[in-house]
Amino acid sequence: MATLYHAPRSRSFRVLWTLEELQLPYTLEVLPFPPRAFAKAYLGVNPLGTVPLFLDKDVRMTESCAICQYLAGRHSPGGLGVLPSERGYSDYLNYLSFGEATLMFPLAVYLRYTKVEPSERRLPQAAEDYRRFFFGRLRNIDALLADGRQYICADRFTVADISVGYSLLFAENNALQAEFPVNVSNYLARLKSITSFEKARQIESSAPLSSLAP
Known about the structure:
- This protein is an alpha+beta fold.
- It has helices at 13-22, 35-38, 64-75, 89-116, 124-145, 159-173, 182-192, 195-206, and strands spanning 2-6, 26-30, 53-56, 59-61.
């Protein structure tokens, strides 16, 4: 059985959501965030100290979007994944990466310099610059949804939506949702109404901590 090492409200939520959407069996190891600081024993399992870590027999992966793509390609290639022969395949690949590389980067910098760093090291101007950077990049998603699309690609819910959707959820968790364009707000609400999202959130909030946590 596969094992997912996870921390609440972290990027590993993408993988938890994907596992629930695919209804695959797995073991969940929940760690405090960041595990490299609050679950030192985890470094013996993953020297990076990051989540997610996904293990499945000889498979060992640490990148959330890549894990989602792997799971969709292996278990639902024409459903939660998109086949190379399908219209929308290029959008599928593009927005799988866009959710992390383009949207999460400025959000991570914003979070660091507003909450993570001690007060004397916080940089309000850098945080504001990257907040604006995020909303500038979000215009791409707003334009994509302006033509009436319900989902990012292939006329259905895919892991590209999970990639982008987590980044929007992260922004919401950091009180940035008031500035979302209407199309983006409606899109996030649509994603949050999906049964697998609700199930993953319930599991995240109720699962006990791993024995690796002190």
